[in-house]
Model the fold of this input.
Amino acid sequence: MYFRNNVRKYELFRRPQLFLKPVDTYANVVDLNRECRQVLIDDFFSNTANTRIPSIGLKGVHWLKSGKKSWRKMNFVIRDSGIYYAGKAKNKSQSLPWTCFSRTEENDMFLPNNNKEFKKQHKAPTEYCFLIRTKTNTREQHRSTRCICVENELQFRLWTNALRRLEYGEKLLNNFNTSRAFLEKLNKEQGDDIQRACLSPTLHSSFQF
Done:
């Protein structure tokens, strides 16, 4: 297991219109100024019950790793308690019930360190994959780590961001506000020096607004 800085750590707050009002293509994303983005963020987080952040009901047909190097398509949906799936019905007029795939409070999400290498190693349909594993992380549970592969980068960003919102809730907003306040304070105290500091890998990955 490797840990690395995520350059899109705060993407939810830099482009909330993409994640809080999901669209089918990047072309449909409307640019907003900072004030409008803040209104959208505040409205979204303030209207949640018991700090449970809604998933906005993302739904789609994705690939599930079903063997060493085999994948099968399944219907997935993100609900407020986690990911659910439905098998493929033999009759087109028949609809199968949704079954729980993973509960947010019981599982963690992981991303491959190198998407292209992961795709090559596991013969994935695309390079946009994420893994689900139980929080207790015993050897037996580690072997049962499950992997979902989505069609494109947009779906990958929408689904991984939705899962992060469900797991961490309002902590994401609090962490973002703390980081932004810290950077603004440094900017006032050190002026141009902080601009040079932000070019370092650590700060550049963590503070992008």
Remarks:
- DSSP finds nine helices and seven strands in the chain.
